[in-house]
Amino acid sequence: MFIQQALSNPFLYFGWMVFVIFSICCHEYAHAYTALRFGDDTAARNGHLTLNPLVQMGMQSLIMLALFGIAWGAVPVCRSTDSARSRAMIALAGPLMNLLLCLFFSLLTVIAQIAGAQQVVSFLLIGGAVNGILFIFNILPVPVLDGFAVISAIHPGLDQFAQKHATAVFLIFILLLWSTPLSSFIFGFGYALESVFIKLWHELAVLIV
Q: Which residues of 65-102 are buried (b: 16+ CB within 10 A; e: fewer)?
């Protein structure tokens, strides 16, 4: 169980907790802000223009994070009046926030490496990895995830499929995560994305110096 890491590896445990909470809150804030920019104030009226984890994630999600290392957030949006473009942009906003955070934490990691602050480097590496993983996970074309929301915005007929089968498909997806190497692939791609960004920042640093 993930909570055992609190005793065996408290640095990783609390680092993962901090970055997952922060990153999910930023992810959900991006959804809410983008929705407001496109004229949908549903999330704003419900208090989601905030980084408060109790609002963006809820107590149940926070407890699951502490116990199992997994969590989620949700922002309400009004889909009935959205154009396909706005729906796609609102859905993309969350994963793109995680992509930007992965890029940002990778930059901070390189700065810390150059400064020789190894403990800081270890901490920031967790932040980059968390956001790389969240980006890869959320762009998957699975009902309930943002990747499917983007595709269904472009192909509205998929909404009917999601309404009928979303729960079953998502449960199958979760089962595959637990019983197959799928989760390892998602984590692997997330770490790989962070590595690409770190290499990019190192190359830019060499050019600047």
A: beeebebebebebeeeebeeebbbbbbbbbbbbbbebb
Q: How deeply is 41 buried, as exposed, middle or buried, from its count of CB atoms within 10 A (0-12, 13-18, 19+)?
A: middle
Please give the structure tokens belonging to residue 113: 């490496």
Q: Are 57 and 23 in contact (CB under 8 A)?
A: no
Question: Which token pair is 109?
Answer: 């990691």
HSE-CB of 43 using CA atoms within 13 angstroms: 26
pLDDT tens string, the chain, 209 residues long: the values are: 788 888 899 999 999 999 999 999 999 999 999 999 999 999 999 999 999 999 999 999 999 999 999 999 989 887 655 688 888 999 999 999 999 999 999 999 999 999 999 999 999 999 999 999 999 999 999 888 999 889 888 877 777 766 676 677 778 888 888 888 999 999 999 999 999 999 999 999 988 86
Using alpha carbons, select from 34, 50, 61 the residue that is nearest to residue 146. Answer: 34
Q: Return the sign of the alpha-carbon dihedral for residues 24, 48, 85, 174.
A: positive
In the chain, what are the domain boundaries? Answer: 2-208
Integer CA distances (angstroms), 155 to 52, 86, 98, 131, in order: 34, 14, 25, 28
Rg of the Cα atoms in the chain:
18
